[in-house]
Write the structure tokens for this entry.
Amino acid sequence: MEIGVEDRGQALVLRVHGRIDHLNAAAFHNALTPHLEHCCADGVPILLDLSGLEYISSAGLRIFMIVAKQAHARGGRIAVAEMQPLVREIFEISHFHLVYEIFSSTAEALAAIGNTTTTSA
Amino acid sequence: MQVRFWGTRGSLPSPLTAADIRAKLAAALMAARGQRLDTAEAVDGFVASLPFSISGTFGGDSSCVELIDGGDHHVLCDLGSGARRYGVEMLRRHGPDQPQTYHVFMSHLHWDHIMGFPMFPPAYVPGNRIIIHGCHAELATAFRRQHGAPSFPVEFDQLQAQVEFVVLEPDRKTEIAGYRITPMLQRHGGDSYGYRFEKNGKCVVYSTDSEHRTEQTEEAEKFAHFFHDADLVIFDAMYSLAEAASVKEDWGHSSNVIGVELCQMAKAKRLCLFHHEPTYTDEQIEDVLRKTRRLEAITRAESPLEIMTAYDGLVVTL
């Protein structure tokens, strides 16, 4: 599992690659945590680009829940985009589509959740 | 070995209403339009072709599961409201003049798991022996206090059967009624215990009222070991994973998703979804079953895991 970070100005895009299961869920959480500090009411929305995520288990989904709770508690906005079909199915079977805003593309997601007061580079 | 489910609903019995029956009839009649149903066989075939949520019901009694292996003693898990129907059947089958021995294994002592005992007919028959096993020190207290005033008209000491309580030790394998039985501590308010039953090369795991945190690797592996190679795992799948990880976190229950993962890790053969959420309709329970089967299919690594969902009256032959 790897995370790539791209500051798009109106949102922080975190690109998640690989598999997340009970063996690396804690590492995934640790990797996300520093970026959550700025995801607040007056801060920067986070977009999780999941195009490179091949599989996620319940342990990984629990981290998605913790992260959503942390962001929402601060008034921040967090969404996911570009899920592979298998991951999307797992999200829906687990009812995580009720927790996260899901977008089919990064562009669509940025248009919906990106800060309009900040222009991208 | 067979497993018969007498009560499968979680937390509270949930009987169907007249409106529920009417909706099933209406759905069946809509589906029957244009069908040729002029013989009993044709009607039977048509009914069998309907979704179970229309032709049947997953049922409303709370937890009670019977293990059947042809032995002299009867073996049960939990005494929820399903125990009443089971007890009536035992009396019908054996009558009052043939004393029977019942071994009951208690997951825990919450009301929905003990509420059937005051209405358990074998408890009122002299000569019967009822041995209630569990890992809670308060085992006897919990059963005694739901009898007698002000909760019930019959005092516990007026029961005609010989009722005994045996406190088991978690993780210690015991031989009872020909089964090798291992209890295991589970995460639930006030603790609960799962049981692994092994006999004649077959294995059933009864694991209800158990919350799991699969991100805790050691815990997940411990349960996978407890379930390993089981022919049947009866699993608390009361909530969706999202509910169990958010608004219902620490409520002591699990999800279909975690059931699939643990059974796949354990290389179990069958997963039976159990302890259904009392607010769920038959359609919702059927939808959970369909999605769970799909999850198993898209995450399958090795041999397939058979997915089923419990209903009152289900018999599984291992």
Q: What stands out?
A: Residues 88 and 121 of chain B are 6 Å apart (CA to CA). Chain B has ten helices and 14 strands.
